[in-house]
Structures are given as structure tokens and as C-alpha cells.
Amino acid sequence: MSLENFLNHAVSSWMNEDGPDSDIVLSSRIRLARNLEEYKFPVLLSTEEGQAIIEKLKSIIPDSGTLSFGKLELLQMHELQPLQKRVLVEKHLISPNLAEDSPFGACLLSESEDVSVMVNEEDHIRIQCLFPGLQLTEALNEAYEVDDWLEGSIRYAFSEEYGYLTSCPTNVGTGLRASVMMHLPGLLLTQQINGIIPAISQLGLVVRGIYGEGSEALGNIFQISNQITFGKTEEDIVEDLTGVVSQLIAQERSAREALAKTSHIQLEDRVFRSFGILSNSRIIETKEAAQCLSDVRLGIDMGYIKNISRSILNELMILTQPGFLQQYAGGPLRPEERDIRRAALIRERLKFELDNK
């Protein structure tokens, strides 16, 4: 797949698939941090050393065609425009740090975009696997496949006592970050979320916004992930996170049922007001669009809206981000121009969906 395809298709193909509990869990992600034995950590690398690591990976890319998800393609950050990198961040294919800070960064991507290997970010290698719904074990198994393939050609920095050695001490051990992206409007509307987040933190997990650390929970979407990587196996970490997420799913469903019983007409009114805004507005900001899309998705999940697919909302959540709007426009846009284009794009996409039902 070409760079243009990665940039021009808002939704990765894996996002069009339904997974277990996908009405609440948007995605499951596994990330493995690894470093090469013979090189300093990326923060200390020279440009020549950083490029040498990329060349080493380039040499084994042809062999990636034997992997179950197909061949990987290399994208080098210095060859991309800032806007192109921003789009890849908005698609969760690379991190903001790789886009902004790495002069010799790169990324290996699978055609379906469920596998992404960031190169020379905080660590030499960060393997990321994404699955729809609650499928942490499946994502872990795919990450293992990539990990084994890479380890067949390169030597990792590994200690018998401490495990995988990483740039940040909090990743030492398994090097594993497991996370799920959850849509939790019921818990916010019933004001239960404020009590739940501190309880989750006490279990060694962390709650972040849609784009990870420091980001906002736009559209009532939260990322739940592990903090502990040392002293547990990868399977134990995944099992613990799955258990907490399963409880959150049950609580979110209970909250939605309570809202349907006690505030049915108010909830239905909220859903259709948001649908009206999305269908008719001429100017809309990112935050308002995300909130309205969340309300409409909730309306679809609860059966209030029956003629729009959930995947359209997944698409619009990404397509209406600033980077994508400017990518489609062919260049930079002022904030007010983005707001106008965002509103027009949403109107046209919803109309197309309704006209083709």
C-alpha cells in the first residue's frame, strides 16, 4: 500500500470490523518496547547510528511477506511533510513524539494498518498491534509474531535479571503496554466516572484521553492501560486488564439501562439534537463534533437511530480531525476554515449514508 493510501483512507480496514463488545470497546492495543543490543538508546543516538538501525530493518522487510498479516512497508519521518505525519498520528499509527521529535524516525506499517512498528522513537523499536473490540489476547499473539520475526534478525537488549531493557525505567521487564479504547457516555452522564477513575488507578492501571498521555477524552472516549511492566508476565498483565475492562463494560451497560429507564425522553432528545447539529450545521469545532458524534453513536447502540451504521461514526471521528481536514483540502487551513469544512464533510457523509440505505 502506498503512502497516499495510508493518508487518504480515514478508517483503517481493521476498524470496519466488529469485535467482542464493540459497542463499548472501540479497540484493543498491544505495544512492545524493544531495543537493539549494540546501540545506545535513541535519545543518545547520532544521526548515523539512527539511520543504521533503519537500514538494518530495511534489509529484512522483504522477509515480512511470510507474516500472517502480510508484508510491512517502511515510512521514514524525514521524508514526510508535517501534515502527513499529523494524519498518521490521528490514525493512531504513530505517536506524536515520533512525528515531532525524531530526526531519524521511521515506521513499518501493514496494509490493513493493524500492525505498526515505530523505529527510533523513545525506544529503537515499538511494536503496536490493534484489534477491534475487546481482543487483547489476540493482539498480544500478533505482537509476539512480529517480535519473533524481528528477533530472528536482530539482537535485543535483554537482562536475565531485569528483562527487556528500555529507555524509560517504567517499561523495563516485559516492555508491554496493553490498552483498550472505550466509549463511556453512560458513566459520564450518570456521573459515575469520577469515582471509577481513582479506583482504576489503585489497581495499577491508568486512564487517559483518546491520544494517550496528556490528551483529552474527546467524545467520551477513554484509554485504559497498564502501568506495571515488571514482575508480571505478559499474559498476567493482559488478563488483569481484561478483567477490569469487563467490569467497566458491565457498569457502562448498567448506566445506559438506568438512563433508558429514568431519563428516556431526555436521552432520546439529546441524541436527536446532536444528530440535527451534525446533519445541518455549517460551522462546527472539533470538540463539539466529537461530543455530537458520541451522542449519535450512543443513539445507534441503544436503538434510537436505526439507519446509520456505527462504522460511519468511527470514520467521522478520525476524518474530522484537523490533520485529515487539511490533507483533503490539499494544504493548511485556518481554524475557522477547518470548522466550515468539518461541518460540510459531516453533512455530506451522513447524507450519503442515508441516501444509500
Q: In words, what does this structure look like?
A:
It is a single chain. The strands form two sheets. The protein has an eight-stranded antiparallel beta sheet with strand order 2-3-4-5-1-8-10-9, covered by helices on one side. It has a two-stranded antiparallel sheet with strand order 6-7. The longest helix is centred in the last third of the chain and has 29 residues, at 234-262. Helices cover 46% and strands 15% of the residues. The chain has helices spanning 3-8, 47-60, 82-90, 96-101, 136-151, 185-189, 193-201, 234-262, 264-280, 286-301, 310-319, 322-329, 335-355; strands spanning 25-34, 72-76, 106-110, 115-119, 125-132, 158-159, 163-164, 176-183, 205-208, 221-226. It has two domains: 3-173, Glutamine synthetase/guanido kinase, catalytic domain (Creatine Kinase, Chain A, domain 2, 2-Layer Sandwich), CATH 3.30.590.10; 255-356. The mean pLDDT is 89. It is globular, with a radius of gyration of 21 Å.
Which key phrases capture this entry?
single chain; 357 residues; alpha+beta; Creatine Kinase, Chain A, domain 2; eight-stranded antiparallel beta sheet; ATP-guanido_PTrfase; ATP-binding; kinase
